[in-house]
Amino acid sequence: MSHVHLPAIATPALLSAIRTHPQLPRHSWYFIAGVTLSVLNRPDEIPKVFKHAVENGSDRVGDTPKQDEHLEIVRKMREALIKAAPIGGLPRAINALFALKEATPPPLRDEPLGFSPTARSVEVYDIPSSTILHRGQTFFDKIYGKVSKRVMGQMDRSGTEDLGITARLMYGYILSNTNVLSAVESSYVLLAGLIPQDVNPQLKGHLKGALNNGATVNEVKAVRDIIVRICEASGMTKLDDNGLGGWGWRGEVANL
C-alpha cells in the first residue's frame, strides 16, 4: 500500500509562534493545536505538538516541564481530543488518540481499568443519568446564554427530536465534564473543532460562548488566530467566489 507524502504543518517555527502568542490563554496552545490537527485529519502531526510541549513547556515562558507536568500536558491533550469527537467526528478522534498514544511514554498513559482523571466511567455506571443530563443542560445554558432555549428548541424541531437528544447526551456526558479541562478550556476545544470545518453558524455561537465561560475578548481572538494559522499551514484558504471549489472557507471566518 502506497503512502501519500503530506507536507508538514506543525513545524518548529509554527509551534514556537503559537506557544509564545502574547494574548493566548496560558497552558492552552498544545491542546488547541492537537484538536485543530485532528479535525484537519492530520493525526500524524499531533506527536510533534506533544514533543514540543514536553520539551519547551505548556506556556509562553518556555521552561522545561517536569515529569508531573508531562502528565498534565498529555491528559489535557487526550481530553481535548475526546471533547472534539462530537464536533469533528469520532473516527478522527480515534486516529488522533492512537497517534498520540504512540508518542506517549507508558508511564504517562491512563490504561483500562486504571485511574481516569475524568471519572467518566463512574458517571456512566454509578451516577443517575438525570444528574449528568442536568449538568449538561446547565453547561449548554451557560454557553448560549439568553438564546439557549431557542437554540435547543430549534434542534428539537429539526425534523427529528433525536437531534436535541444527541446534543443533550453530548453536553451531558462529554462536554460538561470539567475534571481535566475547565469550562473555558472546553470552549477553546469547540473553537478548534469548528473553524477547520467552515461552519460559521455554529462558530458564532461558540465564540460568544467562550466569553460566557470566562474568556476575555483578546483571549478568544488569540485562540481563533492560532487555529486559523494552523489551518492555513495545512493548505486551507478563503475560497474565491468565482472559483470552481477547493478546500477552505467560503467566507471570512467568524470573529467577535
Radius of gyration based on Cα positions: 18 Å
How many helix segments? 12
Mean pLDDT value: 93
The helix/strand series, from N terminus to C terminus, equals: HHHHHHHHHHHHEE
Structural class of the helices, strands and pairings? Answer: mainly alpha
Could you characterize what this model shows?
The protein has 256 residues and is mainly alpha-helical. Helices cover 60% and strands 2% of the residues. Strands 1-2 form a two-stranded parallel ribbon. α2 (29-39) runs parallel beside α4 (67-88), α4 (67-88) runs antiparallel to α5 and α4 (67-88) crosses α10 (183-194). The mean pLDDT is 93.
Task: Write a brief structural summary.
This protein is 60% helix and 2% strand.
